[in-house]
Amino acid sequence: MSSVNIKNVRKNYGNLEVVHGINLEIEDGAFVVLLGPSGCGKSTLLRMIAGLESVTAGDIEIAGRRVNDVHPKDRNIAMVFQNYALYAHMKVRDNMSFSLQLAKRPQSEIDEKVGWAAKILNLEPYLDRYPRELSGGQRQRVAMGRAIVRNPAVFLFDEPLSNLDAKLRVQMRTEIKELHERLKTTTVYVTHDQIEAMTMADKIVILRDGHIEQEGTPLDVYDRPANLFVAEFIGSPSMNLLKGDVTAHGVQLGDGTVLPLPAAHRARQGQKVVYGIRPEHLMLGAGAKARVNVVEPTGPEMHIYAELGGQEICVVTQQRVAPARGSAIEVTPQLDRVHLFDAESGKSLA
Amino acid sequence: MEGSRPLRILRDLAAITVTGLFMFPIFWWALTSIKPISAVFDKDRVNFFDFVPTFINYGVTLFGQSRSQLAIDEGLGMGVAGADAYDSRQSILESIIISLGATTITMAVSVFAAYAISRMAFRGRGHYLNWVLGQRFMPPIAILVPLVTIYKTAGLRDTDNLYMGYLGLMMIYALMNLPIAVLLMKSFLDDVPKDVDEAAMIDGATRWQTFRKVVLPMVKGGVAASAVLVFIFSWTEFLLSLFLTTDIRTVPVKIQTFVTSTGNEWGFIAALGTAAIIPSFIFILLVQKHLVRGLTLGSLKE
Ligand SMILES: Nc1ncnc2c1ncn2[C@@H]1O[C@H](COP(=O)(O)OP(=O)(O)O)[C@@H](O)[C@H]1O
Ligand SMILES: [Mg+2]
Predict the structure, then answer these.
(1) Per-residue model confidence as pLDDT tens digits over B72-98
(2) Mean pLDDT calculated for residue range B262-274
(3) Which helix (DSSP H) or strand (DSSP E) does residue B98 occupy?
(4) How does DSSP classify residue A138?
(5) Is A294 helix (H, G, I), strand (E, B) or coil?
(6) Which residue, A73, A224, A316, B227, could crosslink B204 as a Cys pair with Cβ 3.0–4.6 Å?
(7) Closest to A230 measured CA to CA, from A185, A276, A191
């Protein structure tokens, strides 16, 4: 177990800089998720930690040791890849023991470790099978088994669940989380799926275009997004973001609708802002008028898509209501849940 | 497969026709090899099956039986003296040695070369395909005359030293086959995700161990397929063998000697030709799956 320290790390491919000076501290035993849209540099950052990509500038430290020039095998890390990267010609047992074999560990130790990992991961019946004879979820578990037998200081996961179907993804999510609870190994987990990030992380680091937009606990970033990008990226359905101007009474939208503001905010009168309110924080009942477009029942709740002040909003309610298309509803934001962003910079004004 | 019924039937017909067209000469060749001479030279009609099959042609070319003796035994009365000129066992042995040797050299080099091209970044890596295609544009006959001179000077002619003669032919076959073998192996290696190499590296494998214990075993089907292809190219090569060696006579060159001043021994030509197809045929069957993949899938990318 150990911490990971990323200090002002940059990465260039040729002349193109894709990671722009990232600073990140990952505490011993933490489960940190790097979250961001495709192409934002998550994998590049992870691969730099692994030693699979060189670091253009800055330092990476694992357990207090600078590892910039250390070979991947000497960094005491283990990595799980999106496509599993299993050794197709080896049985599950040999896939898992490969690193120990290479390290010339005694056979008794190898058997013990593989047995232990197989037990944790429910792979005992499959040890003598080849990867091609396993289901997607089982292959994923073998990849994890290969990682844990070495008892590494850091686990690195690069979108490990992307190739699984939705149901299995949820199940594996829980399994990985449980594994972490059990082993308490420092983990860096890359994903573009915000639900995965929310459910698994101790700390979420949101990346965009090679820099960090925000970091914090899942609820932190959900409740207090630092900017429009984070506000929009986290949460499903995503936050309603309505453009308007600050007036004495609140935020005035294009068509004159005024949405109320909480007492304390940092916006100036007349400032152009984006008014953010999550769908579940819009209450049905006396308030701003909206016209219904579509209603989607999900079971536990209803998602009502409507037009408010010329912009599309979503309302999530647990009431069993299904207003007809074109009918009028009134919505009121929960004042303490309102987010306010500067329209120009996108920064939070809360 | 998609498509309407008439379209499907049409497509099947086309496939059968093409296959038939390609197979017919081989079939005819095989048929000729078991015909008695009277049926081969039936000047009244095209004789398909109206004959008593004979294995005399195989007996003479493959088993060293005396032609005149066999002719008498079978009562064919076509005995010609000068028996063992048609015994091809020595040629078959030489062909096997040279083809196996050439295949070994080619594969030993191409597997490494392809791994480097597939996995490592270096200058000129992207031009590989051009090199291969450029090679293919050049007819072997263009290099023949200088090559004979070079071989003579370098002492690679079998008339000077028999072993060097073997080595010389293996080397030129290996050189000729290297581009296509590397291209094939690269396409097989490209199919192995780079993540696998990286996983092995993180697991503690050196570059060599990664290659030897992880990547190579994952492409062994591809190695077999490429090797078969190289073997067949070497096995059937005629021109270079004809010019570069004198005492060594590979099977294609041997067959050509059956065209003599006193007549063409069609029966022997057909028998040895048919027999020479058989190993290729078996090998191809064994690696068919991989070969089709390697020759189509991604072999021309980058
Ligand atoms: N080997 C490479 N050469 C050039 N550009 C690359 C290379 N690898 C990644 N990139 C670029 O770096 C950026 C970040 O890539 P990546 O880290 O894979 O993103 P993510 O994993 O977040 O989807 C992308 O714009 C990608 O095009
Ligand atoms: Mg990625």
Answers:
(1) 666 655 545 455 688 889 999 999 999
(2) 87
(3) helix B89-119
(4) H
(5) strand
(6) A73
(7) A276
Is the CB of residue B209 less than 8 Å away from at least one CB of chain A?
Answer: yes
A11 lines ligand 1 (CB under 6 A): no
Q: What is the pTM of this model?
A: 0.83
Q: Is the pLDDT of residue B299 over 60?
A: no
Between residues A101 and B141, which one has the greater pLDDT?
A: A101
Indicate whether residue A39 lines ligand 1 (CB < 6 A).
Answer: yes
Tens digit of pLDDT for each residue in A126-176? 999 999 999 999 999 999 999 999 999 999 999 999 988 999 999 999 999
- pLDDT above 90: residue A48: yes
The 3-state DSSP class for residue B29 equals helix
Name which of A135, A82, A105 is nearest B203 in CA terms.
A105
Residue B187 distance to chain A (closest CA, Å): 17
- Which ligand is in closest contact with the Cα of A53? 1
- pLDDT for position B81: 46
CA distance A345 to A229: 11
What's the rounded mean pLDDT across residues B236-260? 90
Domain spans of chain B?
92-250+279-296
CB contact under 8 A, A102 and B204: yes
The Å distance, Cα A43 to ligand 1 centre, comes to 7
Ligand nearest to the CA of A48: 1
* Residue found under tokens 């196996």: B100
Q: Using 50, 70 and 90 to split pLDDT, how confident is the model at B63?
A: confident
3-class state of residue B206 by DSSP: coil
Residues of chain B neighbouring A51 (CB-CB closer than 8 A)? 202
- Candidate from A51, A85, A102 with C-beta closest to B195: A85
Distance B219 CA to ligand 2 centre (A): 26
> What does the block give as tokens for A338?
């309102």
Residues in chain A: 350
Residue ranges and CATH numbers for the domains of chain A are 4-226 (3.40.50.300), 237-342 (2.40.50.140)
Q: What ipTM was predicted for this assembly?
A: 0.87
Identity at A254, one-letter amino acid code: G
Identify the closest residue of chain B to A96 by CA–CA distance: B203
If contacts are CB pairs under 8 Å, which of residues 136-155 in chain A contact chain B?
146, 150
Asked, as a colleague might, if the bond just before A218 is cis with ω within 30 of 0, I would say no
For residue B28, the model assigns a pLDDT of: 92
- Given the DSSP bridges, would you call strands A186-191 and A31-35 parallel, antiparallel or unpaired? parallel
Superfamily of domain B92-250+279-296: MetI-like (1.10.3720.10)
pLDDT of residue A317: 95
Query: Is there a contact between B187 and B221 (Cβ–Cβ < 8 Å)?
Result: no
